[in-house]
Protein backbone atom coordinates (compact mmCIF):
# COMPACT_ATOMS: atom_id res chain seq x y z
CA UNK A 1 0.00 0.00 0.00
CA UNK A 2 0.98 3.60 -0.46
CA UNK A 3 0.01 6.29 2.03
CA UNK A 4 -0.45 9.74 0.54
CA UNK A 5 -0.99 13.15 2.12
CA UNK A 6 -2.76 15.31 -0.43
CA UNK A 7 -3.06 19.08 -0.43
CA UNK A 8 -5.42 20.24 -3.14
CA UNK A 9 -7.82 23.08 -3.85
CA UNK A 10 -11.59 23.08 -3.36
CA UNK A 11 -13.60 25.41 -5.56
CA UNK A 12 -16.62 24.83 -3.31
CA UNK A 13 -14.79 25.87 -0.13
CA UNK A 14 -12.57 28.46 -1.89
CA UNK A 15 -9.50 27.17 -0.07
CA UNK A 16 -6.91 24.42 0.07
CA UNK A 17 -8.05 21.15 1.62
CA UNK A 18 -6.26 18.13 3.06
CA UNK A 19 -6.77 14.42 2.42
CA UNK A 20 -5.04 11.31 3.67
CA UNK A 21 -5.27 8.48 1.17
CA UNK A 22 -4.38 4.79 1.34
CA UNK A 23 -4.01 3.31 -2.14
CA UNK A 24 -2.96 -0.13 -3.41
CA UNK A 25 0.56 -0.41 -4.74
CA UNK A 26 1.30 -3.46 -6.82
CA UNK A 27 4.56 -4.99 -5.58
CA UNK A 28 5.82 -8.27 -7.00
CA UNK A 29 7.86 -9.42 -4.00
CA UNK A 30 6.38 -10.85 -0.81
CA UNK A 31 6.50 -8.15 1.86
CA UNK A 32 4.75 -7.27 5.13
CA UNK A 33 3.21 -3.94 4.06
CA UNK A 34 1.34 -4.91 0.91
CA UNK A 35 -1.20 -7.68 0.89
CA UNK A 36 -0.99 -8.69 -2.76
CA UNK A 37 -1.36 -7.61 -6.34
CA UNK A 38 -4.65 -6.00 -7.31
CA UNK A 39 -6.32 -5.19 -10.59
CA UNK A 40 -7.66 -1.66 -11.10
CA UNK A 41 -10.06 0.02 -11.00
CA UNK A 42 -9.96 -0.17 -7.22
CA UNK A 43 -13.02 0.07 -4.95
CA UNK A 44 -13.10 3.18 -2.78
CA UNK A 45 -14.04 3.84 0.82
CA UNK A 46 -14.63 7.42 1.96
CA UNK A 47 -13.68 7.24 5.65
CA UNK A 48 -14.94 10.20 7.69
CA UNK A 49 -13.58 11.53 10.97
CA UNK A 50 -15.57 12.50 14.05
CA UNK A 51 -15.98 15.74 15.95
CA UNK A 52 -12.60 17.25 16.92
CA UNK A 53 -10.89 15.08 14.27
CA UNK A 54 -9.29 15.78 10.90
CA UNK A 55 -7.88 13.93 7.88
CA UNK A 56 -5.04 12.44 9.96
CA UNK A 57 -6.92 11.00 12.90
CA UNK A 58 -7.87 7.59 11.51
CA UNK A 59 -4.24 6.90 10.61
CA UNK A 60 -2.97 8.14 13.98
CA UNK A 61 -5.47 6.35 16.20
CA UNK A 62 -6.07 3.05 14.40
CA UNK A 63 -4.31 0.47 12.23
CA UNK A 64 -6.55 1.21 9.24
CA UNK A 65 -3.64 1.12 6.79
CA UNK A 66 -2.64 -2.35 7.96
CA UNK A 67 -6.24 -3.56 7.90
CA UNK A 68 -6.66 -2.29 4.32
CA UNK A 69 -3.39 -3.76 3.05
CA UNK A 70 -4.88 -6.99 1.70
CA UNK A 71 -8.21 -5.57 0.58
CA UNK A 72 -7.20 -3.82 -2.68
CA UNK A 73 -9.28 -0.77 -1.77
CA UNK A 74 -8.58 2.96 -1.82
CA UNK A 75 -9.36 4.68 1.48
CA UNK A 76 -9.95 8.44 1.23
CA UNK A 77 -9.90 10.35 4.52
CA UNK A 78 -10.88 14.02 4.08
CA UNK A 79 -10.98 16.83 6.61
CA UNK A 80 -14.37 18.39 7.30
CA UNK A 81 -13.57 20.03 10.65
CA UNK A 82 -16.58 20.77 12.90
CA UNK A 83 -19.12 20.93 10.07
CA UNK A 84 -21.21 17.84 10.87
CA UNK A 85 -20.89 17.19 7.15
CA UNK A 86 -23.38 19.95 6.42
CA UNK A 87 -23.54 23.16 4.46
CA UNK A 88 -23.10 25.33 7.52
CA UNK A 89 -25.35 28.24 8.45
CA UNK A 90 -22.23 30.16 9.50
CA UNK A 91 -19.22 28.61 7.84
CA UNK A 92 -18.45 26.54 4.78
CA UNK A 93 -20.35 24.25 2.39
CA UNK A 94 -18.77 21.04 3.60
CA UNK A 95 -21.69 18.83 2.57
CA UNK A 96 -21.42 20.03 -1.02
CA UNK A 97 -17.67 19.54 -0.87
CA UNK A 98 -17.83 16.00 0.54
CA UNK A 99 -20.80 14.75 -1.46
CA UNK A 100 -20.21 16.42 -4.83
CA UNK A 101 -16.73 17.87 -5.31
CA UNK A 102 -14.54 15.38 -3.42
CA UNK A 103 -15.41 12.35 -5.60
CA UNK A 104 -14.58 14.37 -8.72
CA UNK A 105 -11.25 15.50 -7.24
CA UNK A 106 -10.36 11.93 -6.31
CA UNK A 107 -11.24 10.54 -9.74
CA UNK A 108 -9.01 13.19 -11.33
CA UNK A 109 -6.09 12.55 -8.97
CA UNK A 110 -6.41 8.75 -8.78
CA UNK A 111 -7.22 7.38 -12.25
CA UNK A 112 -7.22 3.78 -10.93
CA UNK A 113 -10.11 4.61 -8.56
CA UNK A 114 -13.47 3.13 -9.52
CA UNK A 115 -16.39 5.23 -10.73
CA UNK A 116 -18.74 2.27 -10.19
CA UNK A 117 -21.39 2.96 -7.50
CA UNK A 118 -21.44 -0.76 -6.70
CA UNK A 119 -17.82 -0.49 -5.55
CA UNK A 120 -18.16 2.81 -3.69
CA UNK A 121 -18.52 2.87 0.11
CA UNK A 122 -18.63 5.31 3.04
CA UNK A 123 -17.86 4.83 6.72
CA UNK A 124 -17.08 6.93 9.76
CA UNK A 125 -17.18 7.29 13.51
CA UNK A 126 -19.43 9.49 15.64
CA UNK A 127 -19.98 12.65 13.57
CA UNK A 128 -18.39 10.77 10.67
CA UNK A 129 -20.73 7.81 11.14
CA UNK A 130 -23.57 10.25 10.67
CA UNK A 131 -21.84 11.70 7.60
CA UNK A 132 -21.29 8.28 6.05
CA UNK A 133 -24.94 7.24 6.44
CA UNK A 134 -26.00 10.65 5.17
CA UNK A 135 -24.01 10.12 1.97
CA UNK A 136 -25.54 6.71 1.30
CA UNK A 137 -29.11 7.70 2.19
CA UNK A 138 -29.02 10.98 0.27
CA UNK A 139 -27.43 9.33 -2.78
CA UNK A 140 -28.35 5.62 -2.73
CA UNK A 141 -27.64 5.43 -6.45
CA UNK A 142 -23.98 6.35 -5.79
CA UNK A 143 -23.10 4.14 -2.80
CA UNK A 144 -23.19 0.38 -2.46
CA UNK A 145 -23.05 0.48 1.34
CA UNK A 146 -22.21 2.62 4.34
CA UNK A 147 -21.10 1.95 7.91
CA UNK A 148 -21.39 3.90 11.15
CA UNK A 149 -19.36 3.32 14.31
CA UNK A 150 -20.87 4.99 17.40
CA UNK A 151 -22.64 7.31 15.01
CA UNK A 152 -24.31 10.60 15.92
CA UNK A 153 -27.24 9.29 13.93
CA UNK A 154 -30.04 11.47 15.32
CA UNK A 155 -28.64 14.98 14.95
CA UNK A 156 -32.04 16.57 15.56
CA UNK A 157 -32.27 15.01 19.02
CA UNK A 158 -28.58 15.65 19.69
CA UNK A 159 -28.89 19.32 18.72
CA UNK A 160 -31.88 19.71 21.03
CA UNK A 161 -29.97 18.18 23.94
CA UNK A 162 -26.87 20.32 23.40
CA UNK A 163 -28.86 23.54 22.97
CA UNK A 164 -30.79 22.79 26.15
CA UNK A 165 -27.57 22.12 28.07
CA UNK A 166 -26.03 25.34 26.70
CA UNK A 167 -28.88 27.41 28.26
CA UNK A 168 -28.68 30.10 25.61
CA UNK A 169 -24.90 30.18 25.41
CA UNK A 170 -23.08 29.52 22.10
CA UNK A 171 -22.90 25.81 21.32
CA UNK A 172 -21.52 23.42 18.72
CA UNK A 173 -24.66 23.39 16.59
CA UNK A 174 -25.20 27.16 16.24
CA UNK A 175 -22.75 27.58 13.34
CA UNK A 176 -23.86 24.31 11.74
CA UNK A 177 -27.63 24.69 11.63
CA UNK A 178 -28.31 28.20 12.88
CA UNK A 179 -32.00 28.56 13.60
CA UNK A 180 -33.18 26.21 10.88
CA UNK A 181 -35.06 23.06 11.94
CA UNK A 182 -33.14 19.80 11.62
CA UNK A 183 -35.95 17.26 12.00
CA UNK A 184 -37.49 16.51 8.61
CA UNK A 185 -34.71 18.25 6.69
CA UNK A 186 -31.97 16.99 4.40
CA UNK A 187 -29.73 16.79 7.48
CA UNK A 188 -32.02 14.26 9.20
CA UNK A 189 -31.12 10.60 8.59
CA UNK A 190 -34.64 9.45 9.47
CA UNK A 191 -36.08 11.76 6.82
CA UNK A 192 -33.50 10.73 4.22
CA UNK A 193 -34.04 7.03 4.92
CA UNK A 194 -37.80 7.36 4.55
CA UNK A 195 -37.49 9.33 1.30
CA UNK A 196 -35.07 6.82 -0.22
CA UNK A 197 -37.29 3.88 0.73
CA UNK A 198 -40.38 5.55 -0.73
CA UNK A 199 -38.66 6.16 -4.08
CA UNK A 200 -38.40 2.42 -4.57
CA UNK A 201 -34.91 2.29 -6.05
CA UNK A 202 -31.91 0.29 -4.90
CA UNK A 203 -31.18 0.89 -1.24
CA UNK A 204 -27.64 0.77 0.18
CA UNK A 205 -26.56 -1.94 2.57
CA UNK A 206 -25.98 -0.41 5.99
CA UNK A 207 -23.92 -1.28 9.05
CA UNK A 208 -24.19 0.12 12.57
CA UNK A 209 -22.07 -0.58 15.62
CA UNK A 210 -22.45 1.13 18.97
CA UNK A 211 -21.34 0.41 22.51
CA UNK A 212 -24.05 -0.14 25.09
CA UNK A 213 -22.51 2.44 27.43
CA UNK A 214 -22.14 5.05 24.67
CA UNK A 215 -24.12 8.27 25.14
CA UNK A 216 -25.37 7.78 21.56
CA UNK A 217 -26.58 4.20 22.09
CA UNK A 218 -30.30 4.98 22.40
CA UNK A 219 -30.15 7.15 19.26
CA UNK A 220 -28.60 4.21 17.43
CA UNK A 221 -31.32 1.86 18.62
CA UNK A 222 -33.99 4.25 17.31
CA UNK A 223 -32.34 4.43 13.90
CA UNK A 224 -31.86 0.64 13.85
CA UNK A 225 -35.57 0.07 14.38
CA UNK A 226 -36.52 2.76 11.85
CA UNK A 227 -34.26 1.34 9.14
CA UNK A 228 -35.51 -2.19 9.76
CA UNK A 229 -39.13 -1.05 9.57
CA UNK A 230 -38.41 0.63 6.22
CA UNK A 231 -36.89 -2.44 4.61
CA UNK A 232 -33.17 -1.70 4.75
CA UNK A 233 -30.58 -4.47 4.65
CA UNK A 234 -29.00 -3.52 7.97
CA UNK A 235 -26.30 -5.25 9.96
CA UNK A 236 -26.47 -4.03 13.56
CA UNK A 237 -23.84 -5.03 16.07
CA UNK A 238 -23.27 -3.93 19.64
CA UNK A 239 -21.03 -4.72 22.59
CA UNK A 240 -20.09 -3.32 25.95
CA UNK A 241 -18.21 -0.09 25.41
CA UNK A 242 -18.41 3.68 25.33
CA UNK A 243 -17.12 6.42 23.00
CA UNK A 244 -13.44 5.48 22.60
CA UNK A 245 -10.86 4.79 19.90
CA UNK A 246 -10.10 1.28 21.13
CA UNK A 247 -13.54 0.26 19.92
CA UNK A 248 -13.27 2.13 16.63
CA UNK A 249 -9.92 0.50 15.86
CA UNK A 250 -11.57 -2.91 16.13
CA UNK A 251 -14.62 -1.53 14.37
CA UNK A 252 -12.89 -0.30 11.23
CA UNK A 253 -11.24 -3.69 10.77
CA UNK A 254 -14.71 -5.26 10.97
CA UNK A 255 -16.10 -2.67 8.51
CA UNK A 256 -13.37 -3.42 5.96
CA UNK A 257 -14.13 -7.14 6.27
CA UNK A 258 -17.84 -6.41 5.83
CA UNK A 259 -17.09 -4.40 2.67
CA UNK A 260 -14.93 -7.22 1.32
CA UNK A 261 -17.78 -9.69 1.96
CA UNK A 262 -20.13 -7.47 -0.06
CA UNK A 263 -17.66 -7.20 -2.96
CA UNK A 264 -17.10 -10.96 -3.03
CA UNK A 265 -20.83 -11.67 -3.04
CA UNK A 266 -21.37 -9.16 -5.85
CA UNK A 267 -18.59 -10.76 -7.91
CA UNK A 268 -20.23 -14.16 -7.45
CA UNK A 269 -23.58 -13.06 -8.88
Automatic annotation (TrEMBL):
MF (Gene Ontology): acyltransferase activity, transferring groups other than amino-acyl groups
Gene3D superfamilies referenced in this protein's UniProt entry, alphabetically: alpha/beta hydrolase
InterPro entries: AB_hydrolase_fold, Esterase-like, Mycobacterial_A85_antigen
Stated name of the protein: Esterase family protein
Organism: Candidatus Eisenbergiella stercorigallinarum
Amino acid sequence: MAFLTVDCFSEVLHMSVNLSVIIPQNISIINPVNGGQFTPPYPVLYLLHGYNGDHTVWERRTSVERYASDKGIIVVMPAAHLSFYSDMAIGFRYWTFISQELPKICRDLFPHMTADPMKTFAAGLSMGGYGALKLALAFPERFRAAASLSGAVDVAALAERIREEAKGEPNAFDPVYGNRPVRGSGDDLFHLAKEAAQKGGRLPKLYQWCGRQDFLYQDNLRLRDFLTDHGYDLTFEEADGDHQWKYWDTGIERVLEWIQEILKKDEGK
